[in-house]
Write a structure and sequence with these properties.
This protein is α/β, with parallel strands linked by helices and 301 residues long. The protein has one domain: Alpha-Beta Barrel (TIM Barrel). It is built from eleven helices and ten strands. A seven-stranded mixed sheet has the order 2-3-6-7-8-9-10. A three-stranded mixed sheet has the order 1-5-4. The protein is globular. The two termini are 20 Å apart.
Amino acid sequence: MGGTSYHPITCKSAVNRVTGMPFNWSLNPYRGCVHACHYCYARATHTYFGLNADEDFEREIFAKVNIAEALHSDLSRPSWKHESVAIGTATDAYKPIEGHLRLTRACLETLIRHRNPATVVTKSKLVARDIDLWLELSRVADVRVYFTITTLDHTIWKSAEPGTPNPTTRVETLRAVSAAGVPTGVLMAPVLPGITDSEESIFSVAEAVADAGATTFAVLPLRLDPFVREHYYGWVAQAYPELMGRYAKSFSCRHTSAAYQERIKTISEEARDRFNLNERRMRGTIERPRDAGMIQLSLVS
C-alpha cells in the first residue's frame, strides 16, 4: 500500500459552470479524495488525467494553490451575477490537508469580501474550524453547510467510507455548526441498495440529524457511472457478495429503476415530515436534480 501524494497545481478559473444540476456554479479547491468512499461518483474524474478511479483517486491529491486569487478574479467580473457557489461537489473541501493549506478558508474569505452566497457539502469535522467565516458570510448572503451522513451504523461506515470521520463525529459537528447559528442540512447520499436503504436506516439518520439542528434533509439513490461501477462492484463483491445478483438486475444503466427511486422518495418525504426537516431550501442549494435521474452529491467523498 502506497502513501498519499499531494500535488500543487494552479487554475485559471475557480468556479466552474455546471449543467443538469440544482446549482449553476461549483468550486473545488482539491481533486481526488482521501475519504475513499467506495460509491463516490467523483472517482471517474481522475480518469480524465490518465489516473485510475481506484487507488489513484484516493492517493494522488491535487491542490489548487491559487484558487482564492482565481475566485476573486471570477467574482470581480462585470458579468458575474452573484449566483450561489456550491463548494466541494467533486471532492471534500475539508479533507485533512485543508488543515495545513487552508485553501477552502481562503475561498470563504473571498466570498465574504464579495458578499456572495455559497454552500458546502462535507463529511469532515474540520468545517467547524470555519464556523466564524460561515457565520460572517451568512449575515450578508444565503449560505448552508451540508453534511453527508449516509449511515449511523459504524460497521457499514468503516467498510464503505474508510477514510472519513465516523458518523457520530459528523452528527456532533453538525450540532456544533447548527448551534452557532449557521444554516445546516444533511444529505443521506447515496443510499446503498440492500445496505442503507431500509426505512429504519433512513428514519434513524433523519431523527439524529434533526436532533442535532439540521433543518433540511435529502435522500438520494445510488448512481453508478463507468469506472465508478467497476470500483463499487469490487467492494460489494468483497463486503456483501450476496448482493451481487441484485445489483446486476438493478443497474442495467447508471440509475436504479423508477419504482425504486419513487420508494426512496416516499420514505424520505415521510422522514422529513416526521422529524420537521421541511424547511424550504434556499435558491442555489442542493435539491433534487432537474433531469430524470438522481444524483449523489456526497460526492464527494
